[in-house]
Amino acid sequence: MRITENIFRIFVLIWFIAYSIAIIYPLIWLAMNGLKSNSEFFLNTWSFPKEPIWGNYVDAWNAGVGKFFFNSLFVTAVSITIIVLLGSMAAYGLSRFKFKGVNVFLVIILSGLMLAPQVSLISLYKMLQIMGIYNTYWALILPYVAFQLPFAIFLMRSYFLAIPKELEESAIIDGCNTWKVYLHIILPMGKPIIIAAALLATMNVWNEFAFALVFIEDSALRTIPVGLMNLRSQLNTNFGVQLAGLAISAVPMIVVFIVFQRSFVRGLSEGGVKG
Predict the structure, then answer these.
(1) C-beta separation of 222 from 211 below 8 A
(2) How many folded domains does the chain comprise?
(3) pTM, entire model
(4) Contact status, residue 91 vs residue 153, Cβ threshold 8 Å
(5) Which listed site, 72, 82, 191, 271, has its alpha carbon 20 to 30 Å from 33?
């Protein structure tokens, strides 16, 4: 039995090492080729740069990646803030308050998971024009919030259901109202699932392309996925600079997941078991 266990552990270890290499190597390749000239990129695609050209990153930033980066940062930050606030309050209400039609509200909210965002492009385009916010940051923020809220509410509600009601009852006896219970009990205890929901929404908002392409015309307001597409014609297919821009765009997501990975895994695992 011990020999079998050791063989199984070795097999699992090898599998995880291979999987890690499959994920990490493309990132290394991206950063590595962002330091090459155009000719070296085509002649030595898989080798390390002979003379790293750090100026590619500066050129990419100055060519518009910096502006696109901060546009994405602003849109993502505002969207995630609204998603977390509205999502946590809705999840708390649906998990604690019993009223007529609560299940109907839950079904309506979760039905948002069934609609593909791309299906609503034309209708949203018309709505944003009527509202007068087409070609503004809000033309991206509002659809992002609308399409990310259902899943965030679903995750947080499952987690909140497992929080003991006795804690809330004790707080109410001590003089806390519903708002204070939400702020001082639900939010601190639900921190792991809130972080997990925020990270998943952040990844989707940061990488979203279709809405950013259709709802924004002004190049000064474009986010980084669309901005990188436009970078090609502006720089006459300088692949070293383009890859440098892609590497810059990937850094925030990598950093965020590294910083919050423990809370992310804890939130999803505990939410999956408790829900």
Answers:
(1) no
(2) 1
(3) 0.86
(4) yes
(5) 72
